[in-house]
Design goal:
6-stranded antiparallel sheet; two-stranded antiparallel ribbon; 2 helices; alpha+beta
């Protein structure tokens, strides 16, 4: 199974494997939709700084593949505390994917992943 989907929410981590990119992208979209509905949306005070919900990443959904040991595609979506999402490519050096007109972050991620496979 060449595609791996990793979902991180707090200390909980789940991993799934998929044979096709379409199945992995569908599972990614459903996980992101679930977390955006459950966004807690409360500010957190840490010593001298206050973190607003838009600054907090409450869940991260990552996709890697199709190679197993050194995947050529690494991408994901961060779900913030206010329910907003940010799509990115890369692992260490992340590049934010800007959605095009009429596209959400899941659609932008799918576009970039499919473009990376060609």
């Amino acid at each position: 199974m060449p595609w791996k989907l990793t979902v991180r929410s707090g200390p909980k981590v789940t991993r799934s494997r998929f044979a096709e990119v379409d199945g992995a992208l569908g599972a990614l979209r459903s996980a992101v939709d679930q977390f955006t509905r459950e966004a807690p949306g409360r500010a957190v005070n840490v010593r001298v700084r206050r973190f607003e919900p838009a600054e907090q990443v409450t869940a991260r959904v990552e996709l890697a593949g199709p190679q197993r040991l050194s995947p050529s595609v690494r991408a994901g979506i961060d779900v913030h505390g206010d329910g907003s999402t940010v799509a990115y490519v890369g692992r260490v050096r992340r590049k934010v994917i800007e959605p095009r007109r009429g596209e959400d972050s899941c659609g932008a991620l799918a576009r970039e992943v499919r473009a990376g496979l060609k």
